[in-house]
Every structure is written in structure tokens, then in C-alpha cells.
Specification:
With 131 residues, the protein is mainly beta. Helix content is 0%, strand content 53%. It has strands at residues 8-12, 15-20, 26-29, 33-38, 44-49, 51-58, 61-66, 76-82, 91-96, 106-113, 124-130. The strands form three sheets. A four-stranded antiparallel sheet has the order 5-4-11-8, with no helix packed on it. Strand 6 (51-58) and strand 7 (61-66) form a beta hairpin.
């Protein structure tokens, strides 16, 4: 039989809420940053949390910049995207450029069309960062 542990919530102005057990040990956090942006033409953020800007490095190649730096670069990036062209083109998951492209202040990513043809600009790019 499992026991349900009730967590308390702590927060400060520079980071997302974190959950603590009754002894004050952090046991989890909410999303550290997320963004939904249009990567075609002039890149434009639709909505975000803790993302200050998107750098357009070329076709399908973007750098997501954080408003508040993360504690370290050991985070996870979850992503999905869509070309938005109505042709049912499917995109393979965006790629991170490697360990040199992940820092406490940003990460760099590239989007490819199914069949690995690309890179391609993305009308709907969505990223969530967890740590």
C-alpha cells in the first residue's frame, strides 16, 4: 500500500514554484520555461513563460533565450512543431544542436521535415523546459 505524501509549495519571483515535502526537501518543480512562437518570416512569440526572445539563426534554426537563467544546463527540452501549411506535412522532433548549444541562458534547435529534408521554418514551434 502506498502512502500519499502531501507537498507544500514554495515560490520566489525569479523561478517557478517548487514542491517540498513536509521536511522542506524539494521533490519537484513545475515547468522552468515554455514558449509558443511563429518561426516563419519575422519570428514572433505568441505566448511564453521565462523566455525573453527567439533568435532566428537561419532556415529552421532558432535559439530560445531565457529571461532568468536556469541553475545549470542539465534540463530537458520537450518540443513539438507544425509547418502550418495545411498539407499534412509532419515534422520530426526538433533537434538540439548538441551539448555546446545548451546553456543556462539559452538552447539552440533545428526543425526538419519528415524524411529529414530540411531544415525548414516552422509556423508553430512549441517548447517546454523542465529541470
Amino acid at each position: 500500500m502506498s502512502t500519499l505524501v502531501v507537498a507544500t509549495l514554495k515560490s520566489n519571483s525569479s523561478s517557478p514554484p517548487a514542491f517540498q515535502n513536509t521536511s522542506g526537501t524539494e521533490v519537484g518543480t513545475l515547468c522552468r520555461a515554455w514558449v509558443n512562437f511563429n518561426g516563419t518570416g519575422t519570428v514572433a512569440i505568441r505566448a511564453q513563460f521565462n523566455v525573453s526572445s527567439i533568435t532566428d539563426n537561419g532556415t529552421g534554426d532558432y535559439t530560445v533565450n531565457f529571461t532568468n537563467a536556469l541553475a545549470d544546463a542539465n534540463y530537458t527540452v520537450m518540443a513539438c512543431s507544425d509547418t502550418g501549411n495545411g498539407n499534412n506535412n509532419r515534422n520530426i522532433p526538433p533537434r538540439i544542436y548538441g551539448s555546446s548549444a545548451i546553456s543556462t541562458t539559452s538552447f539552440r534547435t533545428t526543425n526538419y521535415n519528415e524524411g529529414n529534408v530540411g531544415p525548414i521554418d516552422i509556423a508553430y514551434a512549441m517548447y517546454a523546459i523542465f529541470r
